[in-house]
């Protein structure tokens, strides 16, 4: 029986990769030093996995920005605008991802979107009709040699050819991406051949599209792919995750693969489906420890379920996490200040590998002292979880009625009252919420946490930042202002730190994209709001100007999805508990005279199940949770929401049902393609399609933004449109933000002039 690692976090337990990347991008670190830091991290992570008992160490899970981008570079699928000659190098990857690198000519970055139903963002490969592929980037092969030099057996982890095509976009003209499959398979065959030549015995071929509903051409493509790749003298582990693949069981059972990995955390029911179809010599890798959450596994319960399987399969059973540990923090050992009763409930990436080792012990040596200790700890943890209930929160949720979810009037009547109160111009300009988190702000927060500043001193200095942010917006001529969120470390963590039933870590970082890391809160009990969370800052900012300043909140669906939520009650119950806490904050903001309240829901689509048959149940409670958080306000209070880096076409009806007065969305990287949803759907409210990409340091040109808004105006009535960036501005510098917003305001004035 083996332990199977599908992949490990690459950022480092102290975010070493993040800081090295940002130093390199600023020109403060030579490229060789960046590569040396990356190599040291890889070696550390491989050693941890080997120490836990993993026999085949994953290769290809490490990426300088994104693993899909790494594969695209390997396949030479790089857009022409990002090339600097024929060579693909490290700066090529950064030009694709960020729009610029220390070398080469800046160009618009490639599109970025969510990886299936996770909060991880991948860079979307751009493929042209007749695209040719070839091996152009040697990272995979170099890392295979690194593992071998350490004395271990490498297992390359590759996104499969069909999933690669599925996640890519047709660029330049519409065509069937599957026409590229034969050429792509030639290069995959070359890749696997080179691995075989390096002595690799197993390759993990990841086809997460199997969790989706696929039509016949895509299913045929999967069969064609594995028929082609199985001709090589190398063993293939077909790997999928994030959902059940049982609906494709007949196809999968016929594929010529040496092994199969199943995610039994998201879909435990599929085990019986595939046990009956498993070939006599096939390996079965079972993902039984959750790779996407931090709660310690009930190993005794898992072992009891797996014992018959272990007896039948013996060494053909591999124990694994449900998916790559990319979505997990690195090492719980750094959390020295967590309450002991909470810490014992947790397992980060390193600890999850140790859980797999303990599970193996339970299955192979259940009468040992180690096994008995594991069972005792599992029972104790469950008893402790049961003591976290809050009857008052449960009673409030049970007492809700249908009227608690609805505004007083329909949108047209609300719109008239809001226009009379706000008196905004045509095409009002605004931003999404956050402004630059400068080194000075971060240093200020750090000094406060170390006790070097009193709470009063800290607040007074942050008020100066807030005042400066308001004054900058006024000089720029923006119509609806924000206070800038200087006091917030993260849009979810900030609220998590102020809610009951929620804990937080100091080093529980998870990569969201590139060098961007987040530290999700830990929802361990029933959630409530003991006191106002944003009220003082909203009141102060509004006191500085006669222009409206938005109250800025994170919505319940996003707080749920971007937290590590407890697993002992349903997610919709947790979400509605959070919604009640946000509702209390909304009511306080309105009573304080805040006329516009934004409740961000960028993760709304992220929770969508992968199969359409399961969508409606999720959409019902997600929409209800948002409405519950906002429905307490009067008609003349304007409710905004924000969504980004998601496809909207297939959920536009549910988004409209949220009944927000204004929605701002990311559209610039896709050149307003995301607005296609509005061509056939008569969206009832107002909308702000993002006119420039905040994840690129490039300054957007006035005419480019004018062209984007003119394109938007062909789909949406001009009086419904707002003008805003794609997303919040916290990751940018003022030197980047002010020219961009100045151009955005100039573009808006030009549009108003053209419209008379």
From TrEMBL:
Q: What is this protein called?
A: 5-methyltetrahydropteroyltriglutamate--homocysteine methyltransferase
What gene is behind this protein?
Answer: metE
Q: Which residues form the Cobalamin-independent methionine synthase MetE C-terminal/archaeal domain?
A: 427-749
- Function summary: Catalyzes the transfer of a methyl group from 5-methyltetrahydrofolate to homocysteine resulting in methionine formation.
Family, similarity comment: Belongs to the vitamin-B12 independent methionine synthase family.
Which reaction(s) does its UniProt entry say it catalyses? Answer: 5-methyltetrahydropteroyltri-L-glutamate + L-homocysteine = tetrahydropteroyltri-L-glutamate + L-methionine
Coiled-coil parts of chain: none
So where does L-homocysteine get bound? Answer: 432-434, 485, 600
Active site: which residues?
A: 695
- Taking every annotated instance into account, which residue ranges of this chain make up the domain Cobalamin-independent methionine synthase MetE N-terminal? 4-310
Q: Which residues form the signal peptide?
A: none
Q: What class of enzyme is it?
A: transferase
Q: Which GO terms describe its biological process?
A: methylation
UniProt KW keywords: Amino-acid biosynthesis, Metal-binding, Methionine biosynthesis, Methyltransferase, Repeat, Transferase, Zinc
Indicate yes or no for the key word Metal-binding.
yes
Cofactor binding note of this UniProt entry? Binds 1 zinc ion per subunit.
- Annotated 5-methyltetrahydropteroyltri-L-glutamate binding sites: 15-18, 114, 516-517, 562, 606
Provide the taxonomic classification. Answer: Bacteria, Pseudomonadati, Pseudomonadota, Gammaproteobacteria, Alteromonadales
NCBIfam families assigned: met_syn_B12ind (TIGR01371), PRK05222.1 (NF003556)
């Amino acid at each position: 029986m083996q332990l199977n690692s599908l992949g490990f976090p690459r950022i480092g337990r102290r975010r070493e990769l993040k800081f090295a990347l940002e130093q390199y991008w600023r020109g403060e670190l030579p490229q060789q030093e960046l590569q040396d830091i990356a190599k040291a991290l890889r070696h550390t992570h491989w050693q941890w996995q080997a120490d836990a008992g993993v026999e085949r160490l994953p290769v290809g899970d490490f990426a300088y920005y994104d693993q899909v981008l790494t594969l695209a570079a390997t396949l030479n699928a790089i857009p022409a605008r990002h090339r600097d000659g024929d060579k693909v190098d490290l700066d090529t990857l950064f030009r694709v991802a960020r729009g610029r690198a220390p070398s080469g000519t800046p160009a618009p970055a490639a599109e970025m979107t969510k990886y299936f139903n996770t909060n991880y963002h991948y860079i979307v490969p751009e493929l042209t009709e007749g695209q040719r592929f070839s091996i152009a980037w040697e990272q995979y092969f170099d890392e295979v040699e690194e593992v071998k030099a350490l004395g271990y057996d490498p297992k390359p982890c590759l996104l499969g050819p069909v999933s690669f095509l599925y996640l890519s976009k047709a660029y330049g003209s519409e065509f069937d991406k599957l026409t590229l499959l034969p050429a792509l398979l030639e290069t995959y065959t070359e890749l696997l051949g080179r691995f075989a030549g390096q002595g690799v015995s197993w390759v993990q071929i990841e086809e997460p599209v199997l969790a989706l509903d696929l039509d016949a051409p895509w299913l045929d493509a999967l069969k064609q792919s594995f028929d082609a790749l199985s001709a090589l003298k190398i063993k293939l582990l077909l790997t999928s995750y994030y959902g059940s693949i049982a609906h494709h069981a007949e196809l999968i059972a016929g594929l010529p693969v040496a092994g199969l990995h199943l995610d039994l955390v998201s879909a435990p029911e599929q085990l019986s489906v595939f046990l009956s179809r498993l070939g006599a010599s096939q390996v079965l890798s079972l993902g039984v420890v959750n790779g996407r959450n931090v709660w310690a596994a009930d190993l005794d319960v898992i072992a009891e379920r797996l014992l018959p399987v272990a007896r039948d399969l013996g060494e053909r059973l591999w124990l694994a996490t449900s998916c790559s540990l990319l979505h997990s923090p690195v090492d719980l050992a750094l959390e020295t200040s967590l309450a002991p009763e909470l810490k014992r409930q947790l397992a980060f990436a390193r600890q999850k590998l140790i859980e797999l080792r303990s599970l193996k012990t339970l299955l192979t040596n259940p009468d040992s002292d180690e096994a008995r200790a594991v069972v005792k700890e599992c029972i104790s943890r469950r008893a402790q979880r049961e003591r976290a209930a809050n009857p008052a929160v449960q009673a409030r949720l049970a007492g809700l009625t249908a009227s608690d979810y609805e505004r007083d009037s329909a949108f047209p009547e609300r719109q008239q009252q809001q226009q009379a109160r706000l008196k905004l111009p045509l095409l009002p300009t605004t931003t999404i919420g956050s402004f630059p988190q400068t080194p000075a702000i971060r240093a200020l927060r750090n000094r406060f946490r170390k006790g070097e500043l009193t709470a009063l001193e800290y607040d007074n200095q942050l008020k100066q930042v807030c005042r400066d942010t308001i004054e900058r917006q006024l000089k720029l001529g923006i119509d609806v202002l924000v206070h800038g969120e200087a006091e917030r470390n993260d849009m979810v963590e900030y609220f998590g730190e102020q809610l009951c039933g929620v804990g937080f870590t100091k080093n529980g970082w998870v990569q969201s994209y590139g060098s961007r890391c987040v530290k999700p809160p830990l929802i361990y009990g029933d959630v409530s709001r003991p006191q106002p969370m944003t009220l003082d800052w909203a009141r102060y900012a509004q006191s500085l100007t006669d222009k409206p300043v938005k109250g800025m909140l994170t919505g319940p669906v996003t707080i749920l999805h971007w937290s590590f939520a407890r697993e002992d009650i349903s997610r919709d119950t947790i979400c509605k508990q959070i919604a009640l806490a946000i509702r209390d904050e909304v009511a306080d903001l309105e009573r304080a005279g805040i006329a516009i309240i934004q409740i961000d829901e960028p993760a709304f689509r992220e929770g969508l199940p992968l199969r359409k048959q399961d969508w409606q149940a999720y959409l019902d409670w997600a929409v209800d949770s948002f409405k519950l958080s906002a429905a307490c306000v009067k008609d003349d209070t304007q409710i905004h929401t924000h969504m980004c880096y998601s496809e909207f076409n297939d959920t536009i009806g549910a988004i409209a049902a949220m009944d927000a007065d204004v929605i701002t969305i990311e559209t610039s990287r896709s050149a307003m393609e995301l607005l296609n949803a509005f061509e056939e759907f008569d969206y009832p409210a107002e909308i702000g399609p993002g006119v420039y990409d905040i994840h690129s340091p490039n300054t957007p040109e006035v005419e480019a933004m004018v062209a984007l808004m003119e394109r938007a105006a062909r789909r949406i009535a001009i009086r419904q449109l707002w003008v805003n960036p794609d997303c919040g501005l916290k990751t940018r510098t003022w030197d980047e933000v002010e020219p961009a917003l100045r151009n955005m305001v100039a573009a808006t004035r030009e549009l108003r002039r053209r419209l008379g």
